TrEMBL record:
Gene Ontology cellular component annotations, sorted alphabetically: nucleus
Species the sequence originates in: Trametes cubensis
Domain C2H2-type: 53-82, 163-192
One GO MF term: RNA polymerase II cis-regulatory region sequence-specific DNA binding
Cited SMART domains: ZnF_C2H2
Record-linked Pfam families: zf-met
Name of the protein in its database record: C2H2-type domain-containing protein
Domain of life: Eukaryota
Length: 246
């Protein structure tokens, strides 16, 4: 798909608005050519005729609804109201997904990482609402949580031209880059799933933050049952607080 939006002002004060879209497949070809004496007229035109891709408060046009939706979910329109529950961390985020990603990344002062998050969720989600027991390393909710052993590569990973991952054989220019790859969730099991019994799509995710982002996107039927998912996330937040107090 190719798209273009042009809004210009001529020397005689007429505001022009030219928008055209060339699509392939089953998508429709959209075109719009309009001229206005004042910017207010242009604004009203975009608000009424292009509501699926026009942000009214920002007076900004987007290529499609998806881009507009991401814009509406940004900090420009949503305040950072989700505070990190960890002691000593004063950061706040626009969504639960952003908070979970903050914790999973290991960037929080609490030094919580994705392994800690996964273990806590495994204990909380005893009915396997969002976790797949077949993918949980511990072998189910009744088993003891696994001991996470860090993994890293050494100079032996050099194959003569680059540093090679022994799991996926992807190559990296430097050893730190390879180790960053090994410590990422790239090779983790997809222990999170969008629940079919809550009208979800069954998609699987490596990280809890990715699943939360999926729910928050509103593109899946599970968004109608966010209460069930939110209860698991509230339990995670409470457990995190007790973890730091203990």
């Amino acid at each position: 798909m190719r798209s273009s939006t042009t809004i210009t002002r001529t020397r005689i004060g007429i505001v022009s608005h030219v928008m055209w879209y060339v699509s392939v497949g089953d998508s429709d070809v959209v075109s719009c050519y309009a001229f206005f004496a004042f910017e207010l007229g242009l604004h009203e035109h975009c608000r009424q005729k292009h509501a699926d891709r026009y942000c009214v408060p920002c007076k900004r046009m987007f290529q499609n609804w998806n881009n507009l939706d991401h814009h509406h979910r940004s900090t420009l329109h949503r305040g950072r109201t989700v505070a990190c529950p960890m002691r000593g961390c004063d950061k706040a985020f626009v969504s639960s997904a952003a908070l979970i990603h903050h914790l999973e990344s290991g960037g929080c002062v609490s030094r919580v990482d994705r392994h800690t998050v996964n273990r806590i969720v495994e204990r909380l989600d005893r009915q396997n609402i969002i976790t797949n027991p077949a993918r949980v390393i511990a072998g189910g909710t009744n088993a003891h949580p696994p001991t996470i052993v860090d993994q890293w590569a050494t100079e032996y990973a050099w194959n003569g031209s680059a540093y090679e991952c022994y799991l996926c054989h992807r190559t990296f220019r430097t050893l730190p880059a390879l180790n960053q790859h090994l410590r990422s969730p790239t090779h983790d099991d997809k222990m999170y799933r969008c629940p079919h019994n809550l009208y979800g799509c069954g998609a699987e995710f490596v990280a809890l933050s990715a699943f939360c982002q999926h729910v928050e996107s509103g593109n899946c039927g599970v968004c109608r049952f966010r209460g069930e998912v939110d209860r698991v996330l509230e339990g995670l937040s409470s457990r995190m607080k007790r973890l730091r107090m203990g």
